[in-house]
Amino acid sequence: METPLLKDGDAGNRLKAENGDYAEVKCISEAATVFKEETIKLWKIAMPLVFNIVCYYATTSLTNIFVGHLGELQLSAISISVSVIYTFAFGYMLGMGSALETLCGQSFGAGQVHMLGIYMQRSWIILLLSSLVLLPIYIFAAPVLKFLGQDPDVANLAGQYTILTLPSVFSLAISFPTQKFLQAQSKVDVMAWIGLIVLIEHAVLLWLFIPVMGWGLRGAAAAFNITEWVTAIAQLVYVFGWCKDAWKGFSWDAFKEIWAFVRLSIASAVMLCLEIWYMMSIPLLAGHLPNAVIIIGSLSICSFVIEVGKFCHGTILLEARPTKFSVYVAVFQSLIIGLLCMVLILVTKDYFAVIYTDSKELQQSVSKLAWFLGVTMVLNSVQPVISGVAVGLGWQATVANINLACYYAFGIPLGYILGYVANFGVMVEETSSRMQKWGGQDISTHKVGDDI
Length: 452
Hints:
Blueprint: H1 28-68, H2 72-96, H3 99-109, H4 115-139, H5 141-147, H6 152-164, H7 167-184, H8 188-212, H9 217-242, H10 258-264, H11 266-286, H12 292-318, H13 324-347, H14 360-368, H15 370-392, H16 396-421, E1 437-438, E2 441-442
Antiparallel strand pairs: 1-2
């Protein structure tokens, strides 16, 4: 039986079918109305979270900008530290806390709002214990990077920076659960405001510690630690002061059923880690190529643009209703955004690297990568949205298997073949001499301790 139309002015001018989706659209005007309705709902939910993600990745970009003007070696060192060590920790911690997203969403939907605080405390306990596992990786970062085949000078400097950022690991154990706690209650506006304030604070600290006080990478590490903990503390202040329904204080119930909590996160953890750790493998492979300092530096500049687009697009469908028309709208709009980003990158390919570095050689390397960066932005505009649909439907295990096949059975071997066997590298031409000069000295004889 055909579903009758609602009166003009009702949401979408359509009755919903039993599955919660719209009834069949039969003309262009109805399609336009549904498109408008879905767009409003989509961006009302996703915009604050997208903005928060942009602010989060902008803090990393700002760090690269300030450090990049110190020199190529420093930029490469901080890039390999963030891309390998921090990305490993980020994926691991995010995966271990992933059960909270499911449990908080279910409890809030069932009206058991008080359980959100219990689950958040339980996640704090698990992630704080998980942080201890990461300590050896941070402490022995330099030997680990050398074992993985990275340039010794880059690895040594990256290891020193990584140890200095160790306090930030424990902030993740607080931030991730608190974000999921707020997100389940749709308190996303406060997350956006915190993201903006923290971004401004981070920029001020970087300016104060690096150009003004001359602390170099030590200043970058100090600013990063402070920023991570300011984020965590600001979220806690809001939870303790303005979430009285969901936060009833500390409870011993948080220690119950911890193992079940851990088991629930395994599928999501595998899915997230496979995707995030794949990005870690790219600079590792690049570190084996000639001119590793230049190559890693150019990849670091491009990776920020890629990651922001990827996570922003993914957020749209992770937070939206996974109905048929919401999927259509999200995929279409994400594709348009991806195309606009590609055009912007291609138009500014000879200029945008100037923000990050004064090195002419590094700027030219980034310019040569612009076409690949633009195509990647288009592809990344659709793939995360589809993944978001699958996560919204509870298909984490399926997505994990797909990621395993695409990233590790296909992506990494193809990258190795193109980079090493076919000698494509990352489209960076080798100079007549592989020994790059740094401040009038060969990198091989430059004292790493002087840079940090």
